[in-house]
Amino acid sequence: MSMFCQTARDKQMAKKADVPVGECRYRVGGKYRVRCSLDVWEGENLDGKKIARLFAQQDAVLLLQVKEIDGKYHGHVIPQPAFAYSPGWISLEDGFPVVVHCCPSKKPIPPLDFTALPGSWEMKARYTVKNPATVRTSVEIESEFVHEVVPGQEVLILDLGVVDNSQGEPKARLRALVSADDKVGWLSPETAAGDHLLEPVNLLSHQVVGIHKESLRQSKSNGGSGGPRKSFQSDRQIPWQVGGTYRILEKQPARREADLKSKELFNISAGTVVTIKDLRTVDCPTQGSCPMASIEIEEGPEKSKQEGSSVIWVRCTSVKGYDLMDTRDHKEYDKIVNKLRQSIATPLPANSSPADLHAGILATQKKQEPEPVPEETREVSQPEEVPKDVNTNEATEDTDVQQEKVTNPLRDAFEEEKARQNNAGYGTAETMEQQEERKQDSILPPRYDADLMAKLDQYDGEKDDKVFESDR
Asked: β-strands 126-129, 88-91: how paired?
């Protein structure tokens, strides 16, 4: 028998925990009050650096992970508040002697209370977003952006983790691997100071029945406005699925056949968890049509009653059209984890956590990305060769050069005439000898240059046409 059940109070608290004797009485995500003083260690074997000393009825911890080491349970915890402590490991098995009337007690007691404190979290739970939060690729807060969740949206917690910032503030930050809008990533369910970014009410728990009742009460007080959820529309797909597991929201009769007038066998209590075996749409006097489900009771007081009735049918919606069966599938966690496992190229062990599976997917995606080319081996693109008949200034001109051309039309005309004169005589095919002869003819002999300079000196100040008239 576990040493947790040594006192009457321990037995009562263990019964509340609803965990078989011999198994760990604490659940991951829960926040628990320290029942007797204990040490928090750096290593999972309760070794290494001692991180903190926690005191009975003063401190609390948030449980991140449970490991069985040498037949005893050790817990990875974040002492609260998280901004003041680094995460570490404590013993969840060994009791500690206490002093009663100055005499040591011979009865060991558990290190933590069995009842979770308000504001605790649960694995495989669905929560409503309370404040805007950012979903990122990995547990690190600085990792890449994936998705933004807004108030009113729902997320499913797949795993828990922590960012350990032992060198700064805050020292620890709780992180949760979630599924939201078919996207998987990490977000913070609460701040380091303990303020909630998610509403700490598990919508897959029995608490959803209370939410449903409250919405009915508010609808009556508001004259019918608002009210419970109405998920079924006759022109749309039925929101429930065969094989899905759901929670009954209101007490209703179980019938022998898929007919609203069929014989009633017994009543099914609100909060009962059922699995759908078949779905049918039947005529409804008030709503035109409504879905009915053939079910198998998984959890609930009427589970034993179904043993004599192999097939029972229940309504999914009420006569007013609101849901009598919640649409949140309790098997969604398993479906998402299986999808993650199938997305990994190299299979991981069967006991791999969702965080390990998600990390494996990221590693696979990173390998598929093209590797960057090193700077020294990167090919330098050669400039395109400009044809000989193309003016390089024309090919690289910018707006300033273009503006200059617009404002100087006279120069453009001059350049065009010069080019025409240079190309004169080249329109017909010429032999190389003819080209060379024409080139020589265009060169003035040296004696002609000397005579020309002498005439310029002689007729300085006179018009040029008189100077050259004697040579004509």
From this structure: unpaired
